[in-house]
Amino acid sequence: MAKTSKYPLYADLGLIAVSFVWGSGFVASKNALNSMTPMMLMALRFSIAALLSGIIFRKNLRNLSKETIKAGCIIGFFLFSAFAAQMIGLQYMLAGKQAFLTGTNVIMVPFIYWAVKKNKPDKYNFMAAFIMITGLALLTIDFSVGFSFNIGDALTLLCAFLYACHIVVVGIFSKQHDPIALTVIQLAFAAIISLLYVFWSGEFTIAIPVPGLLNGLYLGVFCTFLAFLVQNLAQKHTSSTHAAIFLSLESVFGSTLSILLLGDQFSFTMFLGCIIIFLGIITAETKWSFLKIKQNNPEKITEH
Fold first, then answer.
1. Measured between alpha carbons, how far is 14 from 74 in angstroms, rounded to an integer?
2. Which of 79, 198, 244, 260 is deepest in the core (most CB within 10 A)?
3. What is the pLDDT of residues 139-156, one digit of tens each?
4. Residue 18 CA to chain centroid, in angstroms?
5. Maximum CA extent, the chain
6. How far is CA 6 from the centre of its chain?
7. 132 three-state secondary structure
8. Distance from C-alpha of 262 to C-alpha of 95, rounded to nearest angstrom
9. Rounded to an integer, what distance in angstroms lies between the CA atom of residue 104 and that of residue 243?
């Protein structure tokens, strides 16, 4: 009997860890916003991540072409815009609620590709979109007082759309340029724009309370730099279906941790909306292919 490689197992565990870290990022961000402005937090987070990635991957930055720099800046623009909308919106809403609203970006991606590349989404994408709309209504509308959609909800959905655009442009440019170089450039772009803004607005400060500083360091080192590194390494050793399922757990971890650590309170309707949105995310990411595999191979353990 051939010896089974442990790499797929380690890869799956790595992706679960990435989802957990990303989910915890909502809690860390909410806590950090008690000590600094959203843009100052972004400046701190992206400066740390850009510095670390620039040092570790400095070989990939040699002999950069103008086209690669331009592509990295375009990607960085969407990264910066998405996080700006997210951090500002987080001030007006529960962290756990934002985790699920942000997760809707995976449902938006196929439709943005449709607009850009003319590739029509399949039936699962349309199904996921319908499920998402239903879940969004339950999560964001307070039916006891009629229609209630606050600025935090709007900014977070804008964040989801911008992050979906970010995924699309990454998919396009990573086929033409070194993905590592693009990552370093986009992080540096986001850091520079954030720093320029906080200096211009007068928000820049080094007098950050220790709790806020620790949360900012956690976001920069773990949620941005290390999470990206582990994700790229792990996806080399596991299936795309496994990766999609495990990375979709980000919203679940984010919501659970916000309830446990921040004391967020969800009504039954909001909880039901979260479950429905998660079903939409799973539908868009996996097309339920893991169920088809089990049906086609009821007794066979499939390889990654």
1. 29
2. 79
3. 877 666 555 678 999 999
4. 10
5. 66
6. 27
7. helix
8. 8
9. 17
How far apart, in whole angstroms, are the C-alpha atoms of residue 108 and residue 121? 10
Q: What are 80's two structure tokens?
A: 């910066």
3-state SS string over 226-247? HHHHHHHHHCCCCCHHHHHHHH
* SS3 assignment, position 160: helix
Helix, coil or strand: residue 149: coil
Q: pLDDT (tens digit, 9 = 90+) per residue, 109-130?
A: 888 988 988 888 888 888 888 8
The 3-class secondary structure across 9-46, one letter per residue, is HHHHHHHHHHHHHHHHHHHHHHHHCCCCCHHHHHHHHH
Q: 253: Cβ–Cβ under 8 A, 6 or more apart, which residues?
A: 19, 20, 22, 23, 24, 99
| Pair of tokens at residue 106 | 């995976």
> How far is it, in rounded angstroms, from Cα 131 to Cα 128?
5
Residues 48, 34, 142: CA angle, nearest 5 degrees: 115
Q: What is the pLDDT of residues 24-55, one digit of tens each?
A: 999 999 999 999 999 999 999 999 999 999 99
Q: How far is CA 5 from CA 8, 206, 238, 298, in A?
A: 7, 48, 11, 22
Nearest to 124 by CA among 109, 102, 140, 139: 109
Q: Which residue has the tokens 């951090």?
A: 87
Minimal CA–CA distance to 283: which of 131, 133, 113, 121? Answer: 131
Terminal C-alpha separation, the chain: 17
Q: Is the pTM of this model over 0.70?
A: yes
- Percent of the chain that is helix, strand, coil (3-state, to 5): 75, 0, 25
The amino acid at 205:
T
- Would you state the pLDDT for residue 301? 38
From residue 118, how far is each of 113, 170, 175, 206 by CA, in Å? 7, 17, 18, 48
